[in-house]
Predict the structure.
Amino acid sequence: MDSEGWGYLKASVEAVAAQYSEPSKALYCLPSQPDCKGVKYEFTPAVDLQNIHDFSCDFVDQGVLQRFCFIPGDLKNAAAACDSNPRCKAFVAGKLHGTGVNGAYLKSGTGPVTDNPGTSLYVKRTQTDATAVGADVDRNVTITIKVVAQEEGPGGKEPAAPQLR
């Protein structure tokens, strides 16, 4: 009972388990999850970017160069390929059309999505997203203003505005 589909499911379950047991090693999290510090991708199940945001990466299927970029393998392979390609903003994990081969389609954009129970979308988080949630940031800032002197204003009646340094 260890088919390619089960291997893909097992990889997904293992990734979710790692997310909770070792958050620093997690590959992705749900967009609504508040404790996603350091995670590179947001995961949305059962959606697709079908026939949009495709780009070529010299992927050849049945001897023909394709207009899309398909990365065979598991989620780690897809994430590594997306991370190393500056055009990649997301990937859709599923099967290669008509073949049953597990992998992911790299995408240059992130929407609009369509429902598809056979795929899942992984959107690359920005550096700000990846570090902002749960980050240890000191938000207490102290500003010190020193008044140097209060001199008489023109005509000797009012003090001049304080000088800041």
